[in-house]
């Protein structure tokens, strides 16, 4: 395996399966009374978050602590970044403090890639701009495998704001590696221009794709990244691309509904769908800690 | 490297040349004499089977009897195998104990990878399975089962792992082969076979469930 985890494309099928299998064994740790393993004792993991996050930061922190690593949390607010310190200088400061791994979230696509050239430790991409979010894709794949029993040959439909979604890109890459058939569904304005080069199908018609889906993954409409009008109104978007109870009924009976969170209830997903037993939203959060433990163990646990 | 040839082989080499009066002084010049001697060097020896199929089961049957004897009927015993090959061994012991006295002994597996002290010497490795019997290990007599007892470091890791999983009444250790060279104050309560080995040798256990045959093989380390 690579020393860093920057893109889901860095993972071979064997790497990805090793992470999923490792997570499968580590899942039991979260259920026992002593939720801790001594494996990363004496290692330091820095959470470097330049962008807001609840789930991912807490999840990485919990994962590192369950493996007994020391965790330093760094958020751009209240740090020297607000005084204008550059990413490189921040990185060199962390390096000097002896970080064995840096978990980075940044608004700029490619920031983790740059960082990997400046620090000696492992760099884990926790979301960079509209580029990638590989651990999210891994936890989604883990959730699918646990619920469906396997990923190979499964039909996964990813719906919504693909253009601004790092989750979508990482999922397409990883699910393709693992042998799933991925279909993206979105209004043409919310698809990247290069989408025809991605290893997946593209459709504009959600209702046509739903009956042929084993998994439907709804993406959040990312208003904070939208600098133009991508659709006429929220109401119209929701009518055409939102998952409501009617559409849920059109899915095959054992199909899953996934959402990486945070959800815009009533926009891309109706509240009753989000809370239905078919939805894996809460499970995804639990699995997030497990999959990040697996990644941290595999990157930091052995000889470096 | 001829200089690395073990001293045990030198007398034979010297005897082979005993006709020559120069043999003794030349024998000291090992780099010269054994480099031209194809039969010398431990690499030439084929692996030796120490236990064959039926021997392994006989040893396990005896251990099963010993467990029954020492624990007075194996009432609260839990057998935990250490992956990979400790797991089928624990299952076989449970089967024998049931055969002999009808006592159903729960068995499972205990992976110790995350507790090892040599993790940083090698790339991160895949994890084995940990499957505890449904009634857990609290207040039970846990018998750890492993194929080869060597440095004792695996057992130390297993004791740490157990500590995080519950509080057994007592912990005992069963090993199919005890090959010596302990690096920690650890000993086995039940041993299938004591096997004196050199540190450079490797003991390999093959089991039907994993490898398709039963055997314990002693492999002389090949020298580079």
UniProtKB/TrEMBL annotation, chain A:
<feature type="binding site">
    <location>
        <position position="136"/>
    </location>
    <ligand>
        <name>carbamoyl phosphate</name>
    </ligand>
</feature>
<keyword id="KW-0808">Transferase</keyword>
<comment type="similarity">
    <text>Belongs to the aspartate/ornithine carbamoyltransferase superfamily. ATCase family.</text>
</comment>
<dbReference type="InterPro" id="IPR036901">
    <property type="entry name" value="Asp/Orn_carbamoylTrfase_sf"/>
</dbReference>
<feature type="binding site">
    <location>
        <position position="133"/>
    </location>
    <ligand>
        <name>carbamoyl phosphate</name>
    </ligand>
</feature>
<feature type="domain" description="Aspartate/ornithine carbamoyltransferase carbamoyl-P binding">
    <location>
        <begin position="3"/>
        <end position="145"/>
    </location>
</feature>
<feature type="binding site">
    <location>
        <position position="261"/>
    </location>
    <ligand>
        <name>carbamoyl phosphate</name>
    </ligand>
</feature>
<feature type="binding site">
    <location>
        <position position="220"/>
    </location>
    <ligand>
        <name>L-aspartate</name>
    </ligand>
</feature>
<dbReference type="InterPro" id="IPR002082">
    <property type="entry name" value="Asp_carbamoyltransf"/>
</dbReference>
<dbReference type="GO" id="GO:0044205">
    <property type="term" value="P:'de novo' UMP biosynthetic process"/>
</dbReference>
<feature type="binding site">
    <location>
        <position position="56"/>
    </location>
    <ligand>
        <name>carbamoyl phosphate</name>
    </ligand>
</feature>
<dbReference type="GO" id="GO:0016597">
    <property type="term" value="F:amino acid binding"/>
</dbReference>
<dbReference type="GO" id="GO:0004070">
    <property type="term" value="F:aspartate carbamoyltransferase activity"/>
</dbReference>
<comment type="pathway">
    <text>Pyrimidine metabolism; UMP biosynthesis via de novo pathway; (S)-dihydroorotate from bicarbonate: step 2/3.</text>
</comment>
<dbReference type="GO" id="GO:0006207">
    <property type="term" value="P:'de novo' pyrimidine nucleobase biosynthetic process"/>
</dbReference>
<feature type="domain" description="Aspartate/ornithine carbamoyltransferase Asp/Orn-binding">
    <location>
        <begin position="153"/>
        <end position="299"/>
    </location>
</feature>
<dbReference type="InterPro" id="IPR006132">
    <property type="entry name" value="Asp/Orn_carbamoyltranf_P-bd"/>
</dbReference>
<feature type="binding site">
    <location>
        <position position="105"/>
    </location>
    <ligand>
        <name>carbamoyl phosphate</name>
    </ligand>
</feature>
<feature type="binding site">
    <location>
        <position position="166"/>
    </location>
    <ligand>
        <name>L-aspartate</name>
    </ligand>
</feature>
<dbReference type="GO" id="GO:0005829">
    <property type="term" value="C:cytosol"/>
</dbReference>
<feature type="binding site">
    <location>
        <position position="55"/>
    </location>
    <ligand>
        <name>carbamoyl phosphate</name>
    </ligand>
</feature>
<protein>
    <recommendedName>
        <fullName>Aspartate carbamoyltransferase</fullName>
        <ecNumber>2.1.3.2</ecNumber>
    </recommendedName>
</protein>
<dbReference type="InterPro" id="IPR006130">
    <property type="entry name" value="Asp/Orn_carbamoylTrfase"/>
</dbReference>
<dbReference type="InterPro" id="IPR006131">
    <property type="entry name" value="Asp_carbamoyltransf_Asp/Orn-bd"/>
</dbReference>
<dbReference type="Pfam" id="PF02729">
    <property type="entry name" value="OTCace_N"/>
</dbReference>
<keyword id="KW-0665">Pyrimidine biosynthesis</keyword>
<dbReference type="Pfam" id="PF00185">
    <property type="entry name" value="OTCace"/>
</dbReference>
<feature type="binding site">
    <location>
        <position position="83"/>
    </location>
    <ligand>
        <name>L-aspartate</name>
    </ligand>
</feature>
<feature type="binding site">
    <location>
        <position position="262"/>
    </location>
    <ligand>
        <name>carbamoyl phosphate</name>
    </ligand>
</feature>
<dbReference type="GO" id="GO:0006520">
    <property type="term" value="P:amino acid metabolic process"/>
</dbReference>
<comment type="function">
    <text>Catalyzes the condensation of carbamoyl phosphate and aspartate to form carbamoyl aspartate and inorganic phosphate, the committed step in the de novo pyrimidine nucleotide biosynthesis pathway.</text>
</comment>
<comment type="subunit">
    <text>Heterododecamer (2C3:3R2) of six catalytic PyrB chains organized as two trimers (C3), and six regulatory PyrI chains organized as three dimers (R2).</text>
</comment>
């Amino acid at each position: 395996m690579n020393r860093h985890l920057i893109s889901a494309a860095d993972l071979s099928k064997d790497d990805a399966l090793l992470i999923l299998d490792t997570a499968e064994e580590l899942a039991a740790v979260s259920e026992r009374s002593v939720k801790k393993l001594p494996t990363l004792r004496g290692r330091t993991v820095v959470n470097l978050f330049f962008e807001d996050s609840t789930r991912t930061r807490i999840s990485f922190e919990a994962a590192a602590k369950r493996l007994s690593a020391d965790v330093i949390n760094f958020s751009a607010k209240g740090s020297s970044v607000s005084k204008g310190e550059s990413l490189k200088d921040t990185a060199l400061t962390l390096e000097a403090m002896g970080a064995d791994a840096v978990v980075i979230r940044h608004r700029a696509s490619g920031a983790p890639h740059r960082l990997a050239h400046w620090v000696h430790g492992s760099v884990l991409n926790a979301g960079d701009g509209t580029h990638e979010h590989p651990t999210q894709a891994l936890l989604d794949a883990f959730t699918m495998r646990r619920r469906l029993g396997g990923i190979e040959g499964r039909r996964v439909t990813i719906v919504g704001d693909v253009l601004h979604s790092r989750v979508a890109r990482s999922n397409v890459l990883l699910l393709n590696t693992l042998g799933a058939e991925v279909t993206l569904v979105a209004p043409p304005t919310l698809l990247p221009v290069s989408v025809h080069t991605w290893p997946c199908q593209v459709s504009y018609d959600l209702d046509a794709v739903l009956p042929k889906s084993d998994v439907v993954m709804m993406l959040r409409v990312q208003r904070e990244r939208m600098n133009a009008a991508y659709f006429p109104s929220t109401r119209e978007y929701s009518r055409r691309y939102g998952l409501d109870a009617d559409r849920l009924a059109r899915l095959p009976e054992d199909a899953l509904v996934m959402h990486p969170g945070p959800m815009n209830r009533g926009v891309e997903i109706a509240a009753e769908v989000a809370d239905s037993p078919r939805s894996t939203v809460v499970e995804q959060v639990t699995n997030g800690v497990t999959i990040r433990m697996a990644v941290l163990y595999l990157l930091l646990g052995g000889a470096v | 490297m001829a200089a690395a040839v073990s001293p045990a082989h030198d007398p034979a080499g010297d005897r082979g040349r005993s006709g020559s009066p120069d043999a003794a002084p030349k024998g000291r010049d090992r780099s010269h004499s054994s480099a031209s001697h194809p039969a010398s060097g431990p690499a030439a020896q084929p692996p030796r089977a120490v236990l064959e199929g039926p021997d392994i089961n006989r040893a396990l049957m005896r251990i099963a009897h010993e467990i029954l004897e020492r624990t007075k009927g194996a009432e609260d015993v839990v057998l935990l195998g250490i992956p990979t090959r400790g797991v089928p061994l624990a299952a076989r012991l449970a089967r024998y104990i049931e055969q002999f006295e009808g006592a159903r002994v729960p068995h499972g597996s205990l992976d110790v990878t995350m507790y090892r002290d040599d993790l940083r010497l090698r790339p991160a490795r895949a994890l084995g399975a940990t499957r505890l019997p449904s009634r857990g290990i609290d207040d039970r007599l846990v018998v750890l089962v492993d194929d080869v007892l060597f440095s004792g470091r695996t057992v130390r890791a297993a004791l740490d792992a157990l500590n995080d999983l519950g509080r057994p009444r007592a912990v005992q250790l069963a090993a199919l082969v005890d090959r010596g060279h302990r690096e920690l104050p650890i000993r086995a309560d039940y041993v299938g076979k004591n096997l004196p080995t050199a540190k450079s040798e490797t003991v390999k256990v093959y089991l039907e469930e994993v490898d398709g045959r039963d055997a314990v093989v002693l492999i002389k380390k090949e020298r580079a």
